[in-house]
Design a protein that fits this description.
Order of helices and strands: EEHEEE
Shape: globular
Structural class: mainly beta
Largest sheet: 5 strands, mixed
Strand content: 15-25%
CATH superfamily of the domain at 36-107: Phosphatidylinositol 3-kinase Catalytic Subunit, Chain A, domain 1
Number of strands: 5
Radius of gyration: 21 Å
Number of helices: 1
CATH architecture of the domain at 36-107: Roll
Distance between the termini: 67 Å
Length: about 110
């Protein structure tokens, strides 16, 4: 009755001193281009470079899918590294601090080695 659907605008603080509040914030920049930026993927085997338009909210898995649409022959060797470190498929580009112009390198994992 008379309150906004999200409650009051001022946060309420815990009354007891033993309470703890934990919060995680994610800053999302809203650009006029929809937050898209260019990254490149370098094939370590032949040195070819493929440029892709990505967003901060895209995962490494999304990057791999976009790349494989252009280069399906590399399906079995889609391990990606950024700054010399392998990148997890489920991480977003924002979580990995990927910037426009970043270069991913495709590397192969050798069995038993």
């Amino acid at each position: 009755s008379g309150h906004e659907c999200c409650g009051p605008r001022t946060p309420s603080l815990p009354l007891q001193s033993g309470d703890t509040i934990h919060a995680n914030l994610l800053v999302v920049k809203d650009g006029s281009t929809g937050g898209q930026f260019m990254v490149s993927v370098c094939n370590g085997s032949d040195g070819s470079i493929t440029n892709l338009n990505m967003k901060n909210t895209d995962t490494i898995g999304t990057l791999q899918q976009k790349f494989l649409k252009l280069k399906p022959a590399l399906r079995n060797s889609m391990n990606l590294a950024l700054n010399g470190k392998p990148v997890p498929v489920q991480k977003t580009l924002g979580e990995l601090n990927v910037k426009s112009g970043s270069k991913f390198i495709i590397f192969q994992r050798c069995p038993g080695g």
